[in-house]
Specification:
The chain is globular, with a radius of gyration of 19 Å. The relative contact order is 0.13. Strand 1, helix 1 and strand 2 (30-34) form a beta-alpha-beta unit. The chain is α/β, with parallel strands linked by helices and 276 residues long. It has helices at residues 11-22, 55-62, 79-93, 114-127, 145-151, 167-180, 195-206, 217-226, 231-244, 254-260, 267-275, and strands at 2-5, 30-34, 46-49, 65-70, 97-102, 131-136, 153-155, 185-188, 212-214. It has 2 domains: 2-136, Rossmann fold; 137-166 and 190-251 and 265-276, UDP-galactose 4-epimerase, domain 1, CATH 3.90.25.10. Strands 3-2-1-4-5-6-8 form a 7-stranded parallel beta sheet, with helices on both faces. A two-stranded parallel sheet has the order 7-9.
């Protein structure tokens, strides 16, 4: 019986595989999948090419799997058909536990970004599979700390708290949840910050005053387009800040700390590392 990690050619999935190995899971019990498996040939685990658009790939990769870490796809607008293929393949393979990386409060939030996650969660619920949802909040890596020192920090989140965490911590938590094997919903994030607090922390660490400019969601969308973000991405990001202003990205740090067995990396450390 094996543990399968999808999307292992991306940074989240790769770190999850590394964390499984660090937790003592034998390499021959881990299957890492992705579209460019040469990227993971150095991990020492079985690597299988698996494209979310290919049901045949997925069925082969999931054969004999006890648990699957299903890392959500990155192609906005294509996730529902792709995720349907994953869920159907997991169901056909009789996977014992399917863990899916989702978004905070996926079943109740009104964020645009949550739409495809909500549909995927419903697909999994109706599949009959045993499941766990890993509802990850924002990554620290979503922020350009060095760029903020030069250009300032802009957003539309007001004083809303954002429970961001390091991608590596969230991936390590996913590995811990795989090993633990509980069928439940995890709301995962760090202690968090408001964007004015983030600007103040960057100022403190960099020694340069960084101001936070709060815009309306529409103006923030225009700002993002102006700095080169494609319009569909700008719409999603500005809407995320709109929701964050009202708590859409705030969760308790308890679930993440419980899975890690330690406090999550503080934002001050992430800023220091980015500026080093």
């Amino acid at each position: 019986m094996t543990i399968v990690v999808t999307g292992a050619t991306g940074p989240f999935g790769r770190h999850a595989v590394e964390s499984l190995l660090a937790r003592g899971v034998p390499a021959d019990q881990i299957v890492a999948t992705g579209r460019e498996i040469k990227k993971i040939s150095d991990l020492g685990v079985r690597a299988e090419r698996a494209d979310y658009n290919s049901p045949e790939d997925l069925k082969r990769a999931f054969d004999g799997a006890e648990k699957v870490l299903f890392v959500s796809g990155s192609e906005a607008g294509q996730r529902v058909p792709q995720h349907t293929n994953v869920v159907e393949a997991a169901t056909a393979a009789g996977v014992g536990l399917l863990l899916y990386t989702s978004i905070p409060h996926a079943d109740t939030t009104d964020l645009i970004l949550a739409g495809e996650h909500r549909v995927t969660e419903e697909l999994i619920k109706s599949s009959g599979l045993s499941y766990a949802f890993l509802r990850n909040s924002w990554y620290y890596e979503n922020y350009d700390f060095a760029g903020a020192v030069t250009n300032g920090l802009y957003g539309a989140a007001g004083n809303g708290r954002i429970s961001a965490a390091a991608r590596a911590d969230l991936a390590e938590a996913a590995a811990a949840a795989l090993v633990r094997g509980d069928a439940r919903v995890y709301e995962l994030g760090g202690p968090g910050f408001t964007l004015p607090e983030l600007a103040a922390e960057i100022s403190k660490i960099s020694g340069t005053e960084v101001t936070y400019t709060n815009l309306s969601p529409e103006k923030y969308k225009e700002f993002l387009i102006g700095v080169g973000v494609p319009e569909p991405g700008a719409v999603v990001l500005s809407d995320a800040d709109r929701g964050a202003a009202h708590g859409a990205l705030e969760v308790s740090p308890a679930d993440l700390e419980d899975l890690l067995g330690r406090p999550a990396k503080p934002v001050a450390q992430a800023i220091s590392e980015a500026l080093a």
